[in-house]
Specification:
With 116 residues, this protein is of the alpha/beta class. Helix content is 42%, strand content 19%. It is built from 5 helices and 5 strands, in the order E-H-E-H-E-H-E-H-E-H. Helix 4 (85-94) links the parallel strand 4 (76-80) and strand 5 (98-101). The longest helix has 13 residues, at 12-24. The two termini are 15 Å apart. 25% of the residues are buried.
């Protein structure tokens, strides 16, 4: 079985680096293309794990996490430059499973993903 990871990150450089790195670990990776259709893309891809940023175009990562949690228990790891405790608490309380602050080491990201 191929493990599928959905990347919800609007910084193209960070998103691409994560996608390339995770693909090298034989994960099937998809990046959001249209930030107004995150739910549609999530449903179509049916991932095993989501990497979610907080600050996104249109609606933020908290919103999308709440929407996903209405019908899915897929693990959600927040990846954000907002490293204050309030944002971490908010993410977890909205349904996130873990929180990684930017900048981060890709090996640490892989280790956290493998924990799920």
């Amino acid at each position: 079985m191929v493990y599928k990871i959905f990347i919800v990150e609007d910084d193209k450089v960070i998103s691409q680096k994560m996608a390339e790195f995770l693909s090298s670990w034989n994960y099937q990776v998809r990046q959001v293309h249209d930030f107004s259709k995150v739910m549609e893309e999530f449903i179509a891809f049916d991932p095993d794990l989501i990497l979610m940023d907080i600050t996104l175009p249109h609606l933020n990562g908290y919103h999308w996490t709440l929407e996903i949690r209405k019908f899915s228990k897929v693990p959600i790891l927040f990846v954000s430059s907002a490293n204050d405790d309030m944002n971490i608490v908010m993410a977890i309380s909205q349904g996130a499973d873990d929180y990684i602050t930017k900048p981060f080491d890709l090996q640490v990201l892989a280790a956290k993903i493998q924990a799920y």
